[in-house]
Amino acid sequence: MEQLMAFAANHPMLSTLWVGLFIGVIVLTVMIQMSPIKQLSPQEMTLMVNKQDGVIVDIRPDKEFKKSRIIDSVHLPLEKANKNDFAALEKHKDKPIIVVCTAGLTASKVASQMAKAGFAQVNLLKGGLNAWVNAGLPVAKK
Prior knowledge:
The protein is an alpha/beta fold. The protein has helices at 2-10, 12-34, 42-52, 62-67, 78-82, 107-116, 128-134; strands at residues 38-40, 55-58, 68-70, 74-75, 96-100, 121-125, 139-141. Helix 1 (2-10) packs across helix 2 (12-34). The chain is elongated, with a radius of gyration of 20 Å.
């Protein structure tokens, strides 16, 4: 403990940075756990689709969607999602929705927009389509 105090006294900038990062990780973890939007693994997503009639919403560009996609996914171009144009999904408003992008980064923003627009259960696929493919799960190709 004395060594830790000596280090903190001799390196205040590094110590402050370390404490800030530690607090940031804790806050981010709590925010993810408290968020109404859950991140699902490919296996959890499969269960949700099969047991709760979940709807997979793919927000990737048209070209990528046509090239390969999760079977039975609904395409919602990112441009429409950014304009809060969810008219094509209104009939699925009370079903679980799983938003999918390429790597799982863009989907969180769209999932938040959908939750604000009144969709009951919005989730996202952690790792996106890349995680789905890496898990060896099927994709439809044209």
